[in-house]
Amino acid sequence: MKFYLFILLLTLTIISCDDSTNTFDPNNSKYVDVSIEQIDYPNEFGTDYNIIDMHISEEKEFFLLTDLRFSVNGAENKIQRSLDLELWTELFKSDTIDADRISSHQGSTFISSDDGIWFNSGNGWKKIYDLKGEADKTIRTSGGNFFVPINGIKVEGTDTSTAFGYLFSSDNGETWEELLPWDYPIQDVIQVNPFLMVAIKNNEVIFSRNGGLEWTSALGLPFSDLNFIKLRALGDKIFYISEEGFVYYSGTDPSRSDLTALEAIYFINDNHFTEGRNVDEIYTTDVWEAFKHNDKIYFLDRFNGIFECSMDLNDVVLIENLYPTIYDIEYLDNYLYYKGGSKLNRLNFSAYISEMKEKY
Q1: Do the Cβ atoms of 209 and 193 come closer than 8 Å?
Q2: How far is CA 14 from the centre of its chain?
Q3: What is the mean pLDDT of the chain?
Q4: How many whole angstroms separate alpha carbon 238 and alpha carbon 216?
Q5: Which of 12, 48, 55, 250 is most exposed, with the fewest beta carbons within 10 Å of its own?
Q6: Is the distance from CB of 313 to CB of 297 less than 8 angstroms?
C-alpha cells in the first residue's frame, strides 16, 4: 500500500512540475497574470470545430471561419459575424467547399477555397474565380475598387503555377477582370493611404496609385536574399518583415528616387536601435509581427519578447517575455485577438505590457 501511495505522489509531482505547455495559464506564476478572455461564439460541436481564419473589418465587425473536423463529407465550413462579440449571425455554411481565408470590406465578404474565390455583397454568394486565391489579402480602395490576389494559372499535369496576378473590379464587385502580369505571386499587399498600395513579389517592391489596376516597380529599393513576407504601414513608415525575422523600413512613398536602399533596424543591448550592424551588441532578432498601440510601435519577437518603440524609432525598450508566440493576431482597441483550436482569445495588451514591465 505504501508503495502504491509513493507511486501516486511521485506521479502527481511529475505532472505538477511539467511546464512544457504552450498556452497561457493565469494560475501559474510563471506566466503573466493579466486576464486572457475566451470569447464565446455559437459552436454546437465543441472542440471538434477549428477556427480556420479570423478577420476584423474596417467597420470593427468580427468574422470567424470555422471547420468541423472529422465531418462525414470531409469538410464543413461555417462563417459567423458579430458586431459586439455577443450576438453572432451565420453568413455561410457548406459541407463541400473547403474554405481557408476570409475578409470583409464595407459589407462585401470574400472567401478563398480549393473551389475558387467566393464573393457576397449582400445579394448572396457567387463564385468570381475558379482557381484558388488569397481572400485575406483583398483590398477595397477608394471609388469602390476591389483588388484580390490570385495564385496563378496551373500548368496542366503539374503542381506548378505560372502567370500570377489579381482580380480587379471597379464597380463594387458587379464585374471582374483577370489580370496576369507577373511571373511570381504576391507575398503581401497593403493600402498605405487612399491613393497608394504597396506590395512585395519575389522580394521586389511594387506600388500602385490607381487602386491596384496598374503597378510600377519601386526605385532604389533592392532586396538581398531575404524572403520578405509581411508589410505593415505604421505612422509615416512602411515596415518590411522577412521570413527570417529581420525588419527593414522605408518612407511611405516608395517611388521617391532618393530612397537608395531600405533602412535596416537592428536592436542592440542598450535598448536602442541602430541602422548599422554591431555584431558584439546586436540582439538576434526574429520579428514576426508589428502593430501600433497608444502611439507606440510594437515588434513581437520570438527570441527576445516585445520591442516597444517610439514612432520615430529613436526610443526602444525591450519588454520580456512574450509567451507563447501568438500567430495570426488581430489588433483592435487595446486588445489582441488570436485563435487557438476551437477557442477565440482576447488579450488586454495594455495590462499585459504593464504587467511585464513590473515583472522584468
Answers
A1: no
A2: 37
A3: 75
A4: 17
A5: 12
A6: yes
Cell of 95: 459541407
Contact 211, 148 (CB under 8 A): no
Name the β-bridge partners of 325.
none
CA distance 28 to 88: 33
| Ordered DSSP codes for 56-115 | E-TT--EEEEEEETT-TTS--EEEEEESSSSSEEEEEEESS--EEEEEEETTEEEEEETT
Which pLDDT belongs to residue 82?
Answer: 94
Backbone angles phi, psi at 125, to 5 degrees: -85, 140
The low-confidence residues of the chain, meaning pLDDT below 70, are: 1-35, 44-47, 69-75, 152-161, 219-226, 254-285, 320-327, 360
Give 155's DSSP letter: P
Predicted pLDDT of residue 98: 81
Query: What was the pLDDT predicted at 195?
Result: 78
What backbone phi and psi angles, to 5 degrees, belong to 299?
-105, 120
Measured CA to CA, the distance from residue 321 to residue 247 in angstroms comes to 19
Cell numbers given for 229: 513576407
Residue 67's pLDDT is 86
* Residue 199, C-alpha cell as written in the block: 506590395
Report the chain's C-alpha Rg in angstroms. 23
Q: Please state the φ and ψ torsions of residue 47, each to the nearest 5 degrees.
A: -75, -5
Residue 226: per-residue pLDDT: 66
Q: How far apart are CA 236 and CA 251, in angstroms?
A: 6
As beta bridge partners, residue 68 has 49
98-107 confidence digits (pLDDT tens) = 888 999 998 8
CA–CA distance, 246 with 287 (Å, rounded to integer): 6
